[in-house]
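Issue: ligand-bound run for D-ribose - logging full I/O for the record.

Environment: standard queue, default settings, no custom constraints.

Inputs:
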Amino acid sequence: MIKFAIGSDHAAFHFKEEIKQYIIGKGYEVEDFGTFNLESVDYSDYGIAVGEAVASGAADMGIVCCGTGIGISISANKVKGVRAALCSEPYSAKMAREHNDANILAMGARVIGIELAKMIVDEWLNAKFQNGRHSRRVKKITDYENNRVS
Ligand code: RB5
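Outputs:
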């Protein structure tokens, strides 16, 4: 059973709640790292928290949302081992999984509507990493991150 970590700032609070219920409805386990209301918070805290949950193995994958999806994806990507992909349409979500082995999906609640977001999530869930030449490319990112020459 795949376990998701999910998080957002205030700008994406309602959006995150809907996506959380959508994923739970599909039978996935979800741990919610907040935020839990509309009070203004810093997206960085939530991106890093979800990133750490995924990087540590406490969760298999993550979903992060803020107004644009930009700040929270940048934050999550600072955690070693995270490959967060900001997606505004389903094709990129599919490719992020198949080619980049992305482990966190980022979306912008002020950019896309909730029904499009659900399509993006569906594409993400249905896609699998394709290995092969893509493994070599992802390994170069990981090697750089770990200060190894590849
Ligand atoms: C919050 O106003 C907004 O800056 C944040 O949600 C996000 O869009 C930042 O990248």
